[in-house]
Amino acid sequence: xxxxxxxxxxxxxxxxxxxxxxxxxxxxxxxxxxxxxxxxxxxxxxxxxxxxxxxxxxxxxxxxxxxxxxxxxxxxxxxxxxxxxxxxxxxxxxxxxxxxxxxxxxxxxxxxxxxxxxxxxxxxxxxxxxxxxxxxxxxxxxxxxxxxxxxxxxxxxxxxxxxxxxxxxxxxxxxxxxxxxxxxxxxxxxxxxxxxxxxxxxxxxxxxxxxxxxxxxxxxxx
Length: 222
Hints:
Blueprint: H1 3-6, H2 10-15, E1 21-25, H3 29-41, E2 45-49, H4 52-56, E3 65-70, H5 78-84, E4 93-97, H6 102-110, E5 115-118, H7 123-155, H8 159-169, H9 174-181, H10 185-199, H11 204-214
Parallel strand pairs: 1-2, 1-3, 3-4, 4-5
Helix pairs in contact: 8-10, 8-11, 9-10
């Protein structure tokens, strides 16, 4: 089983076909209007906001997106906004600024920004950064969909099957698992077979990759 292909549901594949949304946060109305036109002409869907607070009042989206954000904003600045949306891995950030400096740029990039562009910048430079951001957004959405599907499968496991899974990915043999759990080797084999079927894992290597994706820590018994 190829984990990267087999665990992707059809609805998740459809997210890549959604028109990406480019959020623009800038307090300069002329910049917002210019970027809105540019984004629309490039085939994406623009949404513009005059402040970070205005952007944060919008419900979180589910499709591919990126954020083009000015650093110097009234009230809440762009770097502070970046911290508040740090969990939105599906929404990479591109910073634009007319007053940036090295420490500001370093802070933004260390926090995961795709690019930090100084005004004035060429249209193509920004469009290139947006393309890269949307590509990264699609990748993050696909990965999140795979993990959600694996979590759904894991939820169907019995407590004993979960114990067996953790022991198997720890490298334990059936005989060792039986001794650790106080059950027969035949029972271990039965639990292991059902667990592998529910998780749709064709091999131990598949199961190890699945456990890693779910961040399941191997259980070690003394």
